[in-house]
């Protein structure tokens, strides 16, 4: 069970004087002796590596959301790997199937071109010497 104890407020805690006007002594802390004066020495950018920067990026995402982002990254990586494998299979299949057809089509065009050349030569011979081939 919880016990409630009354707390008395002292005169020092209830001053109505604004914060800036209080007569407290803050001489032990000055601007030059601040604990943050050496921040530049701690965060030396020249000595920081790219890997340190990447590792520091994890602090941007709160711990409760990290598994969600990690799962999404894993799924995206899986989809990318699958699509690369599918592209490889499609490309090699097209090359194995289309290359022979292209070669056959090329040889057919060459043979038809040769036949057309032979016809033209026969027609030219008939024009020059009609009836010589009979």
TrEMBL record:
The keyword Transport applies. One of its GO terms (cellular component) is mitochondrial outer membrane. It is found in: Mitochondrion outer membrane. It comes from the Eukaryota. Residues 1-16 have a biased composition (Polar residues). Signal peptide: none annotated. This is Mitochondrial import receptor subunit TOM22. PANTHER family: MITOCHONDRIAL IMPORT RECEPTOR SUBUNIT TOM22, MITOCHONDRIAL IMPORT RECEPTOR SUBUNIT TOM22 HOMOLOG.
């Amino acid at each position: 069970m919880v016990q409630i104890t009354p707390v008395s407020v002292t005169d020092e805690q209830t001053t109505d004087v604004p914060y800036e006007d209080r007569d407290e002594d803050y001489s032990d802390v000055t601007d030059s002796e601040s604990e943050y004066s050496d921040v530049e020495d701690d965060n030396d950018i020249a000595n920081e590596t790219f890997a340190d920067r990447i590792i520091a990026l994890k602090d941007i995402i709160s711990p409760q959301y990290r598994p969600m982002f990690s799962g999404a990254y894993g799924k995206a990586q899986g989809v990318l790997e699958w699509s690369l494998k599918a592209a490889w299979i499609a490309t090699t299949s097209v090359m194995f199937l289309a290359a022979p057809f292209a070669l056959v089509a090329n040889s057919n065009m060459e043979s038809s071109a040769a036949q057309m050349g032979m016809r033209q030569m026969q027609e030219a011979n008939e024009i020059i010497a009609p009836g010589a081939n009979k």
